[in-house]
């Protein structure tokens, strides 16, 4: 059973009234519904844009009580209800200053293999419908996993091991900078790695590697697909890209070739990189549409089958698709 503890605290913010915390007095029992919530919550969280980092050093301006409270909890100094209630109280204060809606704070402690995690998310509601036992249509309020304005995940095992600077991730709220900064301050989070920047650097290193090796188009395409598939799979599971593992995925015959290329060229990449989905998706294909013309092609074709002349702003396609070529011939 991956769920060790789970609880929901409600934060009520009716109109312009002061927000208040309605705290649960006990953890939730384990049910199939709770397992389904965990699955949906993880999927929604992994799809969000996030920052990655670590707790601020105790005694510094960025530090918050959370790290000390977690350490106390893991040492059996306090129970899960008390730990999460303290988080809920600080979150209530934050919401009172920046949001005018109510929400439920869901906190889950989970274990997957050697991994030990604490996940927290503020979820809002949406109006839905259900069918009762008499087959009548009835209104139903549902947790809206897509509207996850604030969420965070802490890899407790990595934090305790002390050998990582990216064991903490949290969502970047698009609704307001002040709220996002307030949430990071609540966590005591310090950004330790730029996920989008690191992902872009990794893809640049890969492009350089393909060019250096002078790979055939088919081989280049296969390696591009392997990289994107591996990175996307890691992103979907909330796991970082491991450079050594990626190098093995790209070439089983020479499993250290790409890794050695990165190290010798000194791209400044960390051994583990949090994948950025948006950057990965942009790398897979180039697309554009304007004035009745729609163009889309795999990124690895640029420089080989497709060339861009920046001086004249022209895109040159060297190998016209057969179907398109036949249409053009008939038109001529």
Automatic annotation (TrEMBL):
Alphabetical list of InterPro entries matching this protein: Nucleoid_associated_NdpA
Localized where? Cytoplasm, Nucleoid
Annotated coiled-coil segments of the chain: none
Q: What is this protein called?
A: Nucleoid-associated protein YejK
- Which of UniProt's keywords are assigned here? Cytoplasm
Where is it predominantly found?
cytoplasm
In the record, the note on similarity to other proteins reads: Belongs to the YejK family.
Which superkingdom heads the taxonomic lineage of this protein's source?
A: Bacteria
- Record the organism: Halomonas alkalicola
């Amino acid at each position: 059973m991956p769920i060790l503890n789970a609880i929901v605290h409600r934060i009520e913010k009716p109109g312009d009234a002061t927000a208040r915390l309605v705290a649960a007095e006990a953890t939730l029992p384990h049910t199939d519904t709770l397992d389904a919530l965990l699955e949906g919550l993880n999927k929604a969280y992994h799809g969000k844009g996030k920052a990655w980092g670590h707790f601020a050093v105790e005694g510094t301006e960025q530090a918050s009580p959370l790290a000390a409270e977690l350490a106390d909890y893991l040492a059996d100094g306090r129970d899960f209800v008390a730990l999460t209630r303290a988080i809920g109280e600080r979150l209530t204060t934050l919401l009172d200053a920046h949001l005018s809606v109510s929400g439920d704070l869901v906190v889950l402690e989970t274990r997957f293999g050697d991994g030990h995690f604490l996940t927290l998310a503020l979820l809002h509601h949406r109006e839905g419908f259900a069918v009762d036992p008499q087959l009548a249509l009835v209104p139903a309020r549902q947790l809206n996993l897509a509207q996850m304005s604030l969420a965070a995940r802490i890899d407790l095992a990595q934090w305790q091991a002390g050998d990582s600077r990216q064991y903490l991730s949290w969502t970047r709220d698009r609704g307001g900078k002040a709220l996002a900064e307030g949430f990071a301050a609540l966590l005591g989070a310090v950004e330790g790695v730029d996920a989008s920047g690191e992902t872009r650097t990794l893809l640049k290193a890969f492009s350089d590697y393909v060019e250096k090796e002078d790979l055939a188009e088919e081989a280049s395409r296969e390696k591009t697909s392997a990289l994107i598939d591996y990175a996307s799979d890691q992103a979907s599971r909330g796991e970082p890209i491991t450079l050594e593992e990626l190098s093995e995925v790209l070439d089983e015959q020479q499993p250290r070739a790409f890794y050695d290329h990165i190290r010798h060229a000194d791209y400044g990449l960390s051994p583990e990189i949090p994948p950025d989905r948006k950057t990965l998706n942009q790398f897979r294909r180039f697309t554009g549409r304007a004035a009745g013309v729609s163009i889309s092609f795999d990124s690895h074709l640029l420089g080989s089958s497709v060339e861009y002349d920046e001086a004249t702003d022209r895109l040159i396609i060297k190998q016209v698709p057969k179907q398109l070529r036949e249409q053009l011939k008939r038109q001529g």
